[in-house]
Amino acid sequence: MALDSAVQDLLDGLQQQGLKSFEQLSTEESRAVVDSFKGLQLPTREVAEVIDETFDGPAGKQQVRIYIPEASHPLPVVFYIHGGGFIAGSIDVAEEPNRALANDAGVIVVATSYRLAPESKFPAATDDTFAALKWTAENISRFGGDPTRLAVMGDSAGGNLAAVAALRSRDENGPQISAQVLVYPAIDANAETASKREFQEGYVITSAGMDHFWESYLSSPEDADHPHATPSNASSLTGLPPALVLTNEYEVLRDEGEDYAAQLSAAGVDTTHQRFDGLVHGVYWMSGAVPRSHELHDAVVAFLRDKLKVQE
C-alpha cells in the first residue's frame, strides 16, 4: 500500500527541517526530539482523576501516573510503558494517548517511569518497570482498580519492556497478567530482517538509529542474548498472557514484531496480530498529525475491553 498521505506530509516536513537520524544526535538532542512528539498529538482529554504517585524502586524513588476514568465499579488496569529507544521518552510524552485509552477502554491506566540509557544500562529499565508492575498489582485497589484484571502494554522500546515484564511475571512469581499489548515492539537486538533492510532510511526510525538505541541500552553485546533484553530468546513462551501485537508496514521493526507474534502463537499463546499498511513507526503518538493513528488506538481498546472483560 502507498504511504499514508498524512505520514508523507509529516516525513516531508521532517526532511525540510533537516532532522537527523538518532545515531547522529546527542542523547540530549534525542530526548528533545522524542519529547516533541507531544506537538503531534490532539489536545488532551479530561479524565475523572489523574494521580501522581512515587514508590521505592530498585534505584530510589520512582514515579507512576494513574489515570482514572469516570466509573462506579472496580476497573481493570493497564500498566503502560513508554517508548523512546531506551534512551528517551517519559510519562509526559504519552499523556494524550493514555488519557484517551483510560476513557475509551474504561480502564485505569498506570504509566511508569524508568531509568534511561546510556546513564543506566540493561537491566535497569526492565528492573524498574517490573518493580512498578508489582507495585501496581499490590496497590491499585486503593485507587479503584481490580488487580485480577491487569494488562501490560508498551510501544517500541516500551513494547520490549512490556513483553519482558510478561515473561518475568510468569517466571518470577510476579502478578497474574491477563493480557499484553505490544505496539510496534523492539524485540530482537540482533534482528536482521527484510523490513530492517527495506526501510533502513527515511521512515522516522532508521536501521542505524535502532542499532544505536540497542548499543546505548545494552552493557555488552552478550546482553543481547538474554531473554530480558530479547524476549524472543526465552527458552519457552508457553503460558504467557493473550497478546495483541501491532505493526506498521513502513518500518524497521515490523518483521521482528511479526516474528514474535508468530512465536507466541506457535507456543499456544492466544495471539492477535494486526499490520497497518501505509503507516510508520511512532504513529500511536501522532493522533493530531496522522488521523489514522486512531486505528491503532481502536484496536487496543477493542482487545483490552474483550480480554479484561470491561463492563459497559
UniProtKB/TrEMBL annotation:
Enzyme Commission number(s) from the entry: 3.1.1.1
Gene expressing this chain: nlhH2
Enzyme kind, highest EC tier: hydrolase
Start and end residues of each stretch annotated as Disordered: 219-240
Gene3D superfamilies per the UniProt record, alphabetical: alpha/beta hydrolase (3.40.50.1820)
Domain spans labelled Alpha/beta hydrolase fold-3: 78-284
Pfam families referenced in this protein's UniProt entry, alphabetically: Abhydrolase_3
Key words, A-Z: Hydrolase
Keyword Manganese set for record: no
Protein name as annotated: Carboxylesterase NlhH
MF-aspect GO terms: carboxylesterase activity
Entry similarity comment: Belongs to the 'GDXG' lipolytic enzyme family.
